[in-house]
Structure formats: structure tokens, C-alpha cells
Amino acid sequence: MKYITAFASGFMGLFQTGAKTFIGWMSSIVPVVLLLLVLMNTIIAYLGEERMNKLARASSRNVLTRYMILPFLSAFMLGNPMSFTMGRFLPEFYKPSYYAAQAQFCHTSNGVFPHINPGELFIWLGIAQGVEKLGLNTMDLAMRYLLVGLVMNFIGGWVTDYTTAYVCRTSGVKLSKDVNVVTNA
């Protein structure tokens, strides 16, 4: 009976610890995420959807803007998974590369901008908790992760351009490099 009681006590302790963590988040990270979402929606409402669309179209013309600036802005403004929708403004040839860069960026920016990928926030918080126990600043780590991620996401997108070109060449598929956005008016 002693083992059953110890197991039940430990099992309930797991949920009690989870509840304490959840309440801690409600007074720390959840308000930050909520306010970042409000800011994001305010900026989009202020700029207007058409200006956001023009920005995405203009970003598709240059490799730096296509795999560094556009993924950053769309992740910050739209969050995961909506940030992937900005890829609709890119030519077909660049969509795989944009997806590669965007998918990585949604992970590498979570420490600085937790509203981008709240579904994976628990991963960052676990890492941050270990860093805090070492007496180190979590924002230093978050900024390094963001900056290294930004560069690596760009490289990933660019390498995917070459991979896409190779696959197209070897399979005989021709993907357009012209922007062709169809809007429902």
C-alpha cells in the first residue's frame, strides 16, 4: 500500500507542479504574448493589408529580403503558422526556399518574441530556466539564438534555391520566377 500511495502522491505532484508553472506563466509570459499580439494586429491594421502584400511582393525580388527580412516580418506580424501565407506572393520557384527559411525562423526567434510560436514556448522556457539557474542572462542567449538563426535561416533558404534548381533541372520541371498573385476581389 505504501508504494501505491507514493505513486499516487508523485502523480498528483506532477500536476500540482504543472499548475504552479501555469499560474507563473499567467503572471509573466502570457501578458507579454498577449500584448505582442495586440501590437502586431495594430501595426497590420495601421499599415493595411494591401501595404503588407506590397511589402511581400517587393521582398521577393532580392535574396536577402526574401530569406531574412520577409520571414522576420511575417513571423513577427503573423506568427506561426500564418507567417507561411506570405509565401503566396513569391514566384513558384522560391516557395520551397521561403518555407525552409520561415519554418526555421519560427523556432529561432521564440526567446525574444514568444508570440511568434507560442506552441513551442515550453521548449524555450525549459532552456531559459537552465540558463537562469547558471546565473546567466536569458536575453543574451535569446538574442544570440535569434541572430544566428537569422543568418542560418537565410543560408537554408538560399541552399534550398540551389536544391530546387537542381531538382527542376533533373526532373524537367519548369517553375516560374515571376510573381503572379491571384486575389479574390
Automatic annotation (TrEMBL):
Annotated GO CC locations:
membrane
Q: Which GO terms describe its biological process?
A: phosphoenolpyruvate-dependent sugar phosphotransferase system
Q: Does the keyword Methyltransferase apply?
A: no
Its keywords, alphabetically, are: Membrane, Transmembrane, Transmembrane helix
Question: PROSITE patterns in the record, alphabetically?
Answer: PTS_EIIC_TYPE_5 (PS51107)
Q: Which residue ranges does UniProt annotate as crossing the membrane? A: 29-48, 69-90, 145-168
Give the matching PANTHER family.
Answer: PTS SYSTEM GLUCITOL/SORBITOL-SPECIFIC EIIC COMPONENT, PTS SYSTEM GLUCITOL_SORBITOL-SPECIFIC EIIC COMPONENT
What's the protein name? PTS glucitol/sorbitol transporter subunit IIC [Lactobacillus sp.]
Source taxonomy: Bacteria, Bacillati, Bacillota, Bacilli, Lactobacillales
